[in-house]
């Protein structure tokens, strides 16, 4: 196992949580194995491990992009990750308000609905 893969798996677990990563790994088969390796090495091992931005900032950027592109499933996952990376409900709200101005109200409307559902399941989140 390469250092990039190991580092990526460490960050992936820290940001997304063991439960999520374990489910993804359990669903991996011959068709998806290369993709799981790719995202672990490149997204998590090359990008999320870089020193240039902290994880809170990376979460803000990720939420913005996923909301703007309408990737609801990934957005839900990264709302949870943003909380794990130290963002508060109010900071997530501010990110989505920013999305409304720069990516459009419909994108933000959908993102707010996704985040509201996720946050309702985590009542003790700050």
From TrEMBL:
One MF term in the entry's GO annotations: peroxiredoxin activity
Family matches, as Pfam families:
CMD
Coiled coil spans: none
Pinpoint the Carboxymuconolactone decarboxylase-like domain residues. Answer: 34-116
- InterPro entries membership: 4CMD/NDH-1_regulator, AhpD-like, CMD-like, Decarb_PcaC
Name recorded for this polypeptide: 4-carboxymuconolactone decarboxylase
Q: What is the lineage of its organism?
A: Bacteria, Bacillati, Actinomycetota, Actinomycetes, Micromonosporales
